[in-house]
Write a structure and sequence with these properties.
206 residues, alpha+beta, Jelly Rolls
């Protein structure tokens, strides 16, 4: 009898461990079973139609549908015209135009610190030789100072809307803990760019 009880206890323990492992695997693959992403809010798969099945959080006013509310614009302005795939909503009709040398900075977005990833749509409204835009993550250090991380990515240039390849931070900000609030600054280095529907994968799950 004692032996049978011992085996039952071991079996129950094993089942608990397997269930726990499955839960961790699910969270790392795309958030929790409730669609939460390590305390950074609800996530979705907005780019599944493009073969990107990672889970993303929509940026604060990420489609500029509320004008520039929450964003900081330098030389840029909100204009009519939505990205052509309408991944956020079929009723959306705004985007932001960034002339050469201009910048836009999103509102704060919760991210994990293991190299968050940014994706958005962009196009060139006019011709430019070697068009280039850059993205950087802006955050506050423990000392209270503002710092930034350059993000690595190759912009897709064209006169029609294109989903940009992922822009990824070059390193983790581990000193801040598990998550932090980060803003993302997009700069039109050469040529003008029109940008819309910005999403963030807080944990860069590949």
């Amino acid at each position: 009898m004692a032996a049978r009880l011992g085996w039952k206890f071991l079996l129950a323990t094993l089942m608990i461990l397997v269930a726990a492992a499955f839960s961790v695997s699910t969270a790392s693959a795309g958030g929790s079973l409730l669609g939460l992403n390590n305390d950074c809010g609800l996530t979705s798969q907005p780019f599944a139609q493009f073969g990107d099945y990672r889970y993303y959080t929509f940026g604060a006013n990420g489609g500029l549908e509320n004008g520039a509310t929450g964003w900081s614009l330098s030389g840029a302005r909100v204009v009519s015209g939505n990205e052509s795939s309408y991944v956020h909503g079929t009723g959306d009709d705004s985007s932001v135009l960034i002339p050469q040398g201009g910048t836009v900075t999103t509102g704060p977005i919760c991210v994990g610190l293991d190299k968050p990833t940014v994706r958005f749509f962009a196009k060139r409204p006019s011709f430019s030789l070697l068009p280039l835009l850059t993205v950087e993550g802006v955050f506050t250090t423990k000392a209270g100072t503002t710092a930034s991380l350059p993000m690595v990515g190759v912009p897709v240039a064209g006169n029609s809307w294109s989903l940009q390849l992922p822009f990824v931070t070059t390193g983790a900000v581990l000193e801040l803990g598990d998550t932090t609030m980060m803003r993302f600054r997009i700069r039109a280095v050469t040529g003008a760019w029109q940008v819309d529907d910005l999403y963030v994968d807080p944990m860069r799950r590949y």
